[in-house]
């Protein structure tokens, strides 16, 4: 299974500027630590990667905004691997973070979409995401492609380090094969989400909550809404809600909760109860067939079942659609949002 995965990654990259994943395998195997630098949506994909790599490969991972990393004096040791993630491959902050890490002896692995871009050229090795051009400024399919590549990478590192059971690896790979069909199914939620968007299009604020692998998805859902509809939105780890954001919840607050069936399901159900008790308007993203949450949430959006570690690939889709429809209904230009550049090169 792993050989076929390597084959796929390498085949995609063999004719390109970046070195193959195989050449980097031993470096990943022996790394004491992995740092991930990125901005915006790519940073959220990096957070998913942190959860995946630490869960399966048991290597410490730190994820940092490149825009912060480049301006401080981070501790970087020789032998550290830095994964730089960028859709455009031209983001100035990410490029500067790479140069800083390189000057201190780190090896750089890139995850880029644009072939031959500045970031791709500045890295020692990497994998292209091949998501195709992002027509709009806000990243959407790039996120899915980044998370896919990073999931494969996490599995490869775990296999190399011997930290993953063969049966788990096999299960993940088989589930991975099903993802394109399940993504198609999730995209069919479009009409349903349009109806929900109509109801909430005039909201002044939104709160997004998620746990585990879906915490970064909550951040991404909030970012997409901000970027294209100009509605203020905050993403939080669901358990962090009680440490502050709970004060914001009232009958005017839409709360999007990613509550797919996973190891934190019981806990997220109790988070939903807390929101409901304060009359928050709950839009829950659940796993198909969920019998509990429909009795609690005002709106329920079902996504196909998959392995817990792969849920971000499906749960992000309804959030992207929600932002898209709300933005269109508010008369916003979804492809060219105000103040946003496709590549932030300064
Ligand atoms: C990073 C990013 C995007 C965002 C917007 C501005 O870009 O923050 O995530 O949607 O386009 O730039 P990149 O480094 O992934 O190209």
Automatic annotation (TrEMBL):
Keywords: Aminotransferase, Cytoplasm, Glutamine amidotransferase, Repeat, Transferase. It comes from the Bacteria. Residues 24-163, 196-337 form the SIS domain. It is found in: Cytoplasm. It catalyses: D-fructose 6-phosphate + L-glutamine = D-glucosamine 6-phosphate + L-glutamate. GO terms for cellular component: cytosol. The active site is at 342 (for fru-6p isomerization activity). The keyword Cytoplasm applies. GO terms for molecular function: carbohydrate derivative binding; glutamine-fructose-6-phosphate transaminase (isomerizing) activity. Its EC number is 2.6.1.16. One of its GO terms (biological process) is amino sugar biosynthetic process. Homodimer. Catalyzes the first step in hexosamine metabolism, converting fructose-6P into glucosamine-6P using glutamine as a nitrogen source. This is Glutamine--fructose-6-phosphate aminotransferase [isomerizing]. It comes from Adhaeribacter arboris. The lineage of its organism: Bacteria, Pseudomonadati, Bacteroidota, Cytophagia, Cytophagales. The chain holds residues 265 to 610 of 611 of the full protein.
